[in-house]
Amino acid sequence: QGVTLTLSSTKPIRTGYTFKYWNASIGGTYNPGGSYTHDQNGGTVTMTAYWVDETAPSCSTFTATPNTWSSGNGSVTIKAKDEGSGISSIVLKRYSYVTGTWSDIQSWTSINSTSEVTKTYLQTTEGVYMYQVVITDGAGNTTTINSSAVYLDHTKPVISGAGNTVTSWTNVAPVISVSATDYLSGTTYNGSGAASIVIKNSSGTVVASGTASTSYTLTSSDEGVRTWTIVAKDNVGWETSTSVTTKYDKTAP
Length: 253
Fold this sequence. Notes:
Layout: E1 4-6, E2 18-24, E3 29-30, E4 35-37, E5 47-52, E6 58-65, E7 74-81, E8 87-96, E9 101-108, E10 117-123, E11 127-137, E12 142-146, E13 150-152, E14 158-160, E15 175-181, E16 194-200, E17 206-210, E18 213-217, E19 224-234, E20 239-248
Antiparallel strand pairs: 1-4, 2-3, 2-5, 6-7, 7-10, 8-9, 8-11, 11-12, 11-13, 14-15, 15-18, 16-17, 16-19, 19-20
């Protein structure tokens, strides 16, 4: 009784938590290395550590692929862990570069786990997307991470210009002039882009080619009724074709 004691300066360690101070069983709080005077004759005083979870969850994996143009689907993988109060919820958000808007696309709640948690999401609609994951633990600490952009092109290229070809009988050599564009469906947002456009004769021989446009002027050997096939491809392999028929007569009666 009446003796001043010096508490150990060593702070205890608990994974996922921060030690704040000691709570005395008879009241009062004390810091490591602090002084304590026992003011009663005999009895036991217990010092109990007071802990606070101030550590945000960790995220060992947050991937969103593919990061170049693809004709397939996208995949998002999240691996998170919190050894303190445990993972409480994971919310996945998505930003569309096409529409310029954010949306919450998936949430996992009431997880309540201190073990590693793995979640996945499949992106099936085309577009250009960035993802954001918000991981919250039981104490309300959050971790927010943004992903790389995902590029998905599910739309075939569009051929223009074939309809401008002269298809009625003419003695002037017709010109087939065509071009290809590759926009995501229903938008003016560029997809993977035109890779090639070719014009083929009825035998399948390529008579003209280009990347996004090409043209062919009929020659004397093309007299008569001829059907030409135009084929356009984009950079992920989608293909579009159309045809046009010419009637060229350069021989005098």
